[in-house]
Amino acid sequence: MSAPISILIRTFNSAGTLRTVLARLDLQPADEIIVVDSGSADATLAIAEKYHACIVVAEKPFNYSKSLNLGFQAAKNPWVLVLSSHCVPLSENLVEVFRQAVEKFPEIVAVAYGECSLIEQSKSAPPAILLADQTSPVAQRKEVYGGNGLALYRRDRWREQPFDETLPTAEDLAWFLCALEHGAAAARVPQARVLYRNQGGLRHMFNKGWLESQMAIALAGGRGANFWELGINWGSLLKKWSTAKIPLSMLLRQSAHALGAYLGPKFSSRSRKDDKK
């Protein structure tokens, strides 16, 4: 029997994209939708109710990990698909793609990631990639890690390792690294694709990039993007916009995010140097 899946979506004034996201989900009778809302004042909850979602209210102050943990607590199925409210399914059978992948996963797989894309164009995708548990965490992060825009978790593994509510962001990366350190493996399912359309303002996107980059370095080491890499990123965004693959609003939002991700580690490093003086 195919594994039933719980779809977990965190929301805050997400009416702009949520209706389309929910309408494109290919659900089976045993599947469920769980919406964890953080105080929406628009039509978000009305949309969620229309699609018979289980609505969980997250009390303030907002915390990414707390919202996730509330959703996982409410979930009834063995697999939980974490899907951002601004990630619109591109695959016509997004849930079924993950369901079929689950049947091929050994017990050691704790999480599997799909692909979050800025453009709608489809492309041929290789079979699901599974890295053996012997592979280093650094290699697995490079090959399969994708974050919580589109990630399928084994719920039993979450029971052993809830998301860390002391973290302001990067809770998905922290969970991924901890799971690998404790012998789990991760997979990537490139056939599962969503269109990334974050509706946050420019300040929100800048701050998001700033904090995420700092947290990534703190958790996994390495360095932030250099100026050359920032230029390449901007060049890629401009090309997508000039060829009408992304709207101007997405160009501006992603540019703000890239600038925040570039500057965040630079100022963090400067602060550490100042502290040592």
Give the SSE order as H and E letters.
Answer: EHEHEHEEHEEHEHHEHHH
Count of the domains: 2
Number of helices: 10
Number of strands: 9
Biggest β-sheet: count, sense, barrel?
9 strands, mixed
Identify the CATH class of the largest domain.
Alpha Beta
Report the structural category.
Answer: alpha/beta
Q: What is the CA–CA distance across the termini?
A: 63 Å
Account of the protein in words:
This protein is of the alpha/beta class and 277 residues long. It has two domains: 5-196, Spore Coat Polysaccharide Biosynthesis Protein SpsA, Chain A, CATH 3.90.550.10; 202-276. It is built from ten helices and nine strands. Strands 1, 2, 3, 4, 5, 6, 7, 8 and 9 form a nine-stranded mixed beta sheet that branches. Helix 2 (44-50) links the parallel strand 2 (32-37) and strand 3 (54-57).
